[in-house]
Design a protein that fits this description.
There is one protein chain. The protein is mainly alpha-helical and 157 residues long. It contains two helices and two strands; from the N terminus they run H-E-E-H.
Length: 157
Amino acid sequence: MTKRIIIPVFACITVCLYGCGHKNAAGGNEIPEIQVAEAITDSLTLYKSYPGTLSATNVVEVVGRVNGTLLSSNFSAGDLVHKGDVLFTIESETYRNAVAEAEAQLATAKSSNEYATRQTYRCRDIFQPAVGAARILHRAVRGEKPRHRMRPAHDPS
């Protein structure tokens, strides 16, 4: 058992001694040349980059309430916009025509209403004396006394 330990120990000592006794092939103990740089003081900007994502605090989805041809977009993605800013411009001719048509229909309706009101007053003035006379006649046929005295239409009092 001691032979098993002695042989590896002897091999290690031999290798170590052989390495220590080996000389440089250049022929001597030369001092290696070392380069030296002078140290200076200067400011240095450190840049660090980290992975990450950004999101806005206020995000608004812009959805059109009307159909139309888009004429201009007055902002770019990521721009800061304020309440009331015009973001898009659409073709307004279609809607101007619709407003003009609605205003014409309103004028027609007002005119028809005015005509109907005048006709109502005219008819009431025409038929009111006849209705009153028919009531008096009806009461007389039934044998009732007249409730009030009838005045002629041309009497100013």
